[in-house]
Amino acid sequence: MISKECLNYVFFTRNTKEHMRTQIIYGHCRLKGSTLEIMGASVDKEGEWAIVGGTGVFAMAQGIVVRKIHDKDAAKDTVELTITGLCTKKVVPATDLTKNGPWGGNEGFPRDTKEKPMRLESVTIHYEGLIDSFQFSYTDQSGNKQTEGPWGAGGPVGATTETIILGPSEFVKEVSGTYGSTFNTTNVKSLMLVTNVKSYGPFGNPNYDNVQGTPFRFTAEDGSAVVGFFGRSDRFLHSFGVYTL
């Protein structure tokens, strides 16, 4: 479904008496700059146009546009369009990731992504004093949705769970937190994520067990973003690192 804020578009039309060819250029949100190419009979009557191509989100689109006269007067016609199309998924070559970190200890088991991530979709953090577990979902470089975790046992009853769902054009540009020794192991005590839209957190307690945690901070370079994570965990999240692309 296309949200209302996306429906700001520009028509470029080439008409003859019996034939019409139009390019629709979308002007806002995730569809910005994408185009649809449609053609068919004149706009004077109700009927169907063919979708014969597109660019951006609508690359290689095919389908139909059903037009219905919504209002008609001497000055202008208002036409209602129902667009139904099919777009072929682009094949994106595998892209090398940059591994940053980890920060924390060497306890527990290594944790990593099953596939190479392309875009981070959501993050779920379970915490009380420490980061009890960490989970995230992402789109991999083949265009498939993947979920990793939870890394950690999840903590006691009554612990807090926060889920961050990133918007279509939102990306993580900075990750920070603290780690330190508790329960005879090194654990991640707190985490904070900063996107191009807002900040999330901090989650956890950097001074848990009355001991100040060791801080860490990672900021992605201009033109790149955090797309996935790796680390170590057992009962708790022991170390934490990020993938950028």
Task: Describe the secondary structure blueprint for this structure.
Layout: E1 9-15, E2 20-26, E3 35-40, E4 47-55, E5 62-72, E6 77-86, E7 98-104, E8 109-111, E9 117-127, E10 131-140, E11 145-151, E12 160-165, E13 172-182, E14 185-195, E15 199-204, E16 214-219, E17 226-233, E18 237-244
Antiparallel strand pairs: 1-2, 2-3, 3-4, 4-5, 5-6, 7-18, 8-17, 9-10, 9-12, 10-11, 13-14, 13-16, 14-15, 17-18
Subcellular location: Secreted, Extracellular space, Apoplast
Family: Belongs to the plant dirigent protein family.
Domain Jacalin-type lectin: 97-245
3D structure, described in words:
By secondary structure, this protein is mainly beta. The chain has two domains: 20-87; 98-244, Vitelline Membrane Outer Layer Protein I, subunit A (Aligned Prism). It is 0% helix and 59% strand. Strands 1-2-3-4-5-6 form a six-stranded antiparallel beta sheet, with no helix packed on it. A hairpin with a 4-residue loop joins strand 10 and strand 11. The chain is elongated and about 80 Å long.
